Amino acid sequence: QVQLVESGGGLVQPGGSLRLSCAASGSIIISIYTMGWYRQAPGEQRELVATITSGKSTNYADSVKGRFTISRDNAKNTVVLQMDSLKPEDTAVYFCNARSSVRRENYWGQGTQVTVSS
Fold first, then answer.
1. Which one, 16, 21, 88, 94, has the greatest CB density within 10 A?
2. What residues does 20 pair with on adjacent strands?
3. Whole-number mean pLDDT of the chain?
């Protein structure tokens, strides 16, 4: 059984920062997975925020480039999303994802709420 548990969400003012963490547990060693963060705002489809491959190559949505940074610590089985210069349009539920096309596995966390508002 695999669990991805997100933490670090909350309420922040525009221009502020938050740091989201995703801890993986169970029968998963994240070093071989592409890890990612996705988000879903009310009434919207889930969208990609950022991904990081096993080789630590990163990819970001255009809307967050230069503001968000994804990183991974394979030894701790964690992935972090550092979010700076937050905007109200960043408000959403943020989900952690672990994906392996080779193993045909795809896991999701339960999500953490991020609200950017004054």
1. 94
2. 81
3. 96
